[in-house]
Amino acid sequence: MGENRVVLLSSLVGRPVRGSGGDPIGKLHDVVVRLDEPAPPIVVGIVVCTVGRREVFIPIDEVATMDDRGVALRTSRIDVRPFVRRPGEILLNKDLLDTKVIDLTRNRVARANDLEIDRVRDGWQVTAVDVSGAALAARIGLTRWFRGSRRLVPWDQIDVFASQIPVGQPGVRHAKLAALHPGDLAQIMDEVAAPQAREIVAALDEARAADAVEDIDPKLAVSVVGGVNPEQAADILEEMGDDAAADVLGDLPPDEAEAILRRMDPEDAEAVRTLMSYPDNTAGGLMTTEVVTLPGPTTVDEAMAHLRNADWVPDPLPAIYLLDDESRLAGIVPLRELVLADPAATLQSIATKPAGVCRPDVSAIEAARLIARYNLVALPVEDESGVFLGVVTIDDALDFLINQRRRRSGLFA
Amino acid sequence: MRPGADPSLRLWLQAAARRRALKRQAELRRRRRRPPRWVALIGVIGPGLIAASAGNDAGAIATHSTAGADYGYGLIWVMVLLSLPLFVVQEMCARMGAVTGKGLADLIRERFGVRWTTFAMLTLLVANAGTAVSEFAGIVAAAQLFGIPPFLAGPLVAVLLWMLIVRGDYGRVERVFLVMSLVFLAYPIAAFLAGPDWTEVARSVVAPRVELSSGYIFLVVALIGTTITPYMQFFVQATVVDKGIDATQLPAQRVDVAVGSIFANMIVIFVQIATAAALFGTGKHIVTAADAALALAPVAGEYAFALFGIGLLGASLLAAGVLPLATAFAVCEAFGFERGVSRTWQEAPIFYSLFTGLLVLAAIVTTIPEIPLIGLLLAVQVANGLLLPIILVFVTRLAGDRELLGEYANGLPTNLLAWGTTILVGGLALTLLVQTTLAVLLGE
Q1: HSE-up of A359 (CA within 13 Å, CB side)?
Q2: What confidence category does residue B444 fall into, taking pLDDT thresholds of 50, 70 and 90?
Q3: C-alpha closest to that of A251 among A206, A229, A221
Q4: How far, in Å, CA of B77 to CA of A181, rounded?
C-alpha cells in the first residue's frame, strides 16, 4: 500500500477515521501536538468527533496511516471519555491554523494558511507552514482560478505566539527573534495584536526591546509598555532614548506613568519628566536631552578620551556641544570635525557657530525645516534665557514627517 | 579656584545649570496645564459614540422619516426596544477588541477557518456594497435639494472622496462632515416645536399596536437593519483596537457604548416624532428628500430643505468615505492581503481595487436616471436587516468563546440576550422573505 509521508493539515480535517477493521469511528477534528523548542512540534494524537457527536482523543500510537483519504487506526477500541486539553498541548487546527506567525525567511508576519505534517522515524511532526495565497485558494476550492505557487516555510524559520494558545505554557521561547534587527522586530510588532506584541517584548532583553519599542506605532508602544509590569517597563524605558520614553509615558494614565517613573533611575526620570511636559508636535516633544557637552578649552585628544572612557555615550552622536558657565551654547563641534582635527587643538578653535537654534515650543514642522535649511544632523534647542536644553535629531524629525501622513489617515492607515 | 582651571568642575557646573533649566521648564509647563481627571475618561469615550452617530446616516434618516410619515408614532416602540440589543451587540465587539487586540475579521478567520471567513466576508461585502450605494443615494438626494443633477453629483463626489482618501487627507475632512451631520440635532427641537400629543406618543410606546402586514414588517426589518448594521460591528471593534483600549478600561468603554446607543436611538426617535407630526395623516408619503425635509419646517421654515440637505450631505459623506475603506480593510485583514492607505496601489492591489470598486459601484447605481432614491435607501436597510443575523451568529459565538476571551467571555444573561436578538431578527427576516415570496408567487 502506497503510504504518503507528507500531509497537509487542511486535507486531514474532516476526513473519516476508521478502526482496524475498516469500521467507521468518526471524523478527524484536530491534531494535537506538543512543542518544546528548538525541536519542531511532535504530534501526540488526534481529536476525533465520533459518530455519536462526541469529541474524543486518540493517541498517535494507535494511528496506522494518516493521509488525505482519511485515518486508519490500529485498533477499533477507543477511549470514549470526552477530550480535555492538557496544559501545554497545542491544537493545530484550532490554535495555529489561520493565525499569524512570524516568517523568518522574510522577517515578516504571515498567516498560517496551511500546515505540513511529516511522517518521521517513530511518529509525526509539523515540518513547515504554508503562507501562500495558493494554500488559501486551495482551501476555498478556487485553485482553478488562482495562479501562483505554494510557499512552504520550514518550521525552523517560523516563530509562533504562545499567547494564541489558551491553556498552559507551550514550549515557545522565541530564541529565533534574538537574531532580528530591532527595526524588523518593530515592523513585526506593528502587524500583530497588542498581546502578541507584549509577548515579543517580554522575550527580548531590555536593550533590544527598547530599540524595537522606540520604532513601533506610538499607540501600540503605550499599550505594550502599559501591559508589562512597572519594574520591567522601567528597565525598558531606561534603555530607550529619553525622548522616546517621554512619548510613551506621556500617553499612559498619569498614575501608571508615575509608578514607572519612580522605578527609573532618578536622573533619567527627571529628563523624561521635562520632555513629557512638551506637546508631541513641538521641538520640545521631539527633543532629546542626551547630548555630550564639554568646556571650550578641552583639547581634541582629551575629548576623545572623555568619550572613550564614558560609561555611556548617546546614540546617535551628532556633535559635541560647547557650553559657557551659564550653560549657554557657545559652539558646536560636529563629529566629522572632531575626527579630522589635530589632536592638540582645543575644541573652541575648531567649533562652528550654532546655526538655526530654536526654542522648545516651536512646531515640530518648523524644527524639521530648520534642520533642512541649515543641513543639520541635530538641531540645538535652548530656553528663553539661552540655556541649552537638548537637540532634535534628524531621525526623529524624519519619523515625525513620515508618521504625519499616517496620523492623518487615521484608522485605516 | 578659577572656573576653567579644572575641566571636570566646569563640566559639573554646566551640567548643574542645564539640569536646573530643564527642571524649571518642567515646572513652568506643569503649572500651565494639568489635565483634570475627566480628561482620562474622555480618552476612552468615543468609539461607541462615534459609531452610533455614524449609524444615523442617509439610510437611517430615510427609514425613520418613512416610519413617521406612514405609521405616525406607531413604530417608536421598536426603537425603544432596539436600544438594548444595539448595546449588547456593540458591547460584545468592543469587549473582543479590548481583550484580544484584534479586529472582528481577524477573529472570524482564526476561530472559524477560511471557508466560514469567505462566507462572512461575502455577506459583509454584499451588505456594505448596498450601504455604500445608499450613502451615495443620500448624497445625490441632498444635491438635488440644491438643484445639482444626479449625473453630476454621484461621479463628482466619488472622485473627490477617492482622492481625499488616497492622499491621506480624509481624517481632516471627516471632522467637517461630522459637524455638518450634527444638523440632525435639529430634529428634537423640531419635534418639540411641532407640539405633538405627548400622551399619544407615550401610549404608542407602552402599548403599541403591532401589525402583521408585509408593509409593517418591511419597515420593522428596515429599522433593525439601519440600527444594528453589519458594518458597524466591524467598525466599533476596529476603533477600540486602534485606540489601544485594553481590558482594564472595559467599564468606561461600556459606559461609552451605552451612551452612544441611547443617544443615537433618542435622535432617531425624534426624527420619527417630528416627521409624524408634519406628515402623518396628511396622506403624504416620503417620495423624495424634499418630503422628508418638511419635518424640519418648525425649526427652519422655508429653509428646512437647506438645513435637511446639509445634514443629509454631511452624514452621507461621512459614511460614504469610511464604509468602502472599512470594508476593504476588513476583507484584506481576514485573508491576509496587504492593506491600508499608507501603502501604494502596487503594494496593496486588492485593498485599493475593493474600495475603489465600491465607490464606483455606488456612483454608477445612483446615477441611473429616474432611480427612486428613497425606495433604494429603504431596500438597502432591509437587505442589511436580512444579512444581519449571519454576522450576529459569528459575533455571539466569538464573544461566548471561553478559550478566546477567558473570564471576559459572555455570561449567561449576555448570551441569552445576544442569541435572543439573533433569533428574533432572523425570524423577522424569514417572515419578510416568506411574505414577499408568497406575494410574488400569488402575483400581487
Answers
A1: 6
A2: low
A3: A221
A4: 60
Query: A340-399: per-residue pLDDT in tens?
Result: 999 999 998 999 988 888 999 899 999 999 999 999 999 999 988 888 989 999 988 998
Count of helix runs (H) and strand runs (E) in chain A? 16, 19
Residue B143 CA to residue B367 CA, distance in Å, equals 12
Helix (H) or strand (E) holding A320: strand A319-323
Domain boundaries, chain B: 42-387
- Residue A1 burial (CB < 10 Å; 0-12/13-18/19+)? exposed
The answer to whether A413 contacts B241, with C-beta atoms less than 8 Å apart, is no
Domains of chain A: 1-179 (2.30.30.240), 184-277 (1.25.60.10), 286-401 (3.10.580.10)
ipTM of the complex: 0.81
B401 close to A (CB below 8 A)? no
pLDDT-derived band of residue B1, with 50, 70 and 90 as boundaries?
very low
Show which of residues 142-171 on chain A sit within 8 Å of chain B, judged by CB atoms.
Answer: 164, 166-167
User: What's the pLDDT tens digit per position in B143-180?
Assistant: 999 989 888 999 999 999 999 888 777 777 777 887 78
**CATH class of the domain defined by B42-387:** mainly alpha
Task: Tell me: cis bond preceding B35? Omega within 30 of 0 counts.
Answer: no
Chain A residues in contact with B21 by the CB 8 A cut-off are 327, 383, 385, 387-389
Decide if A345 contacts A316 (C-beta within 8 A): no
State the pTM of this model. Answer: 0.85
Instruction: Say yes or no to pLDDT of B38 above 60.
Output: no
Give the number of other CB atoms < 10 A from CB of residue A119: 18
Which helix (H) or strand (E) element contains residue B9? helix B7-32
The angle at the Cα of B54, spanning B53 to B57, to the nearest 5 degrees, equals 105
Calculate the alpha carbon distances from A253 to A193, A248, A249, A259 in Å. 21, 10, 8, 10
| Alpha carbon distance B339, A39 (integer Å) | 34
Q: Contact B292/B80 with Cβ under 8 angstroms?
A: no
Q: What does the pLDDT read at residue B3?
A: 37
* Whole-number Å distance between alpha carbons of B376 and A252: 47
The reply to whether B397 touches chain A by the CB within 8 Å rule is no
- What dihedral angle (degrees, nearest 10) is formed by the CA atoms of A365, A371, A374, A378? 150
Cβ <8 Å between A227 and B106: no
Backbone angles phi, psi at B214, to 5 degrees: -70, -30
Through-space distance between the first and last CA atoms of chain A, rounded to whole angstroms:
54
Tell whether the torsion through CA atoms of B177, B178, B181 and B183 is positive or negative.
Answer: negative
Cis peptide before A38 (omega within 30 of 0): yes
Q: By the 8 A CB rule, do B267 and B185 touch? A: yes
Contacts of A360 in chain B (CB under 8 A): 25
> Are the C-beta atoms of residues A193 and B241 closer than 8 Å to each other?
yes
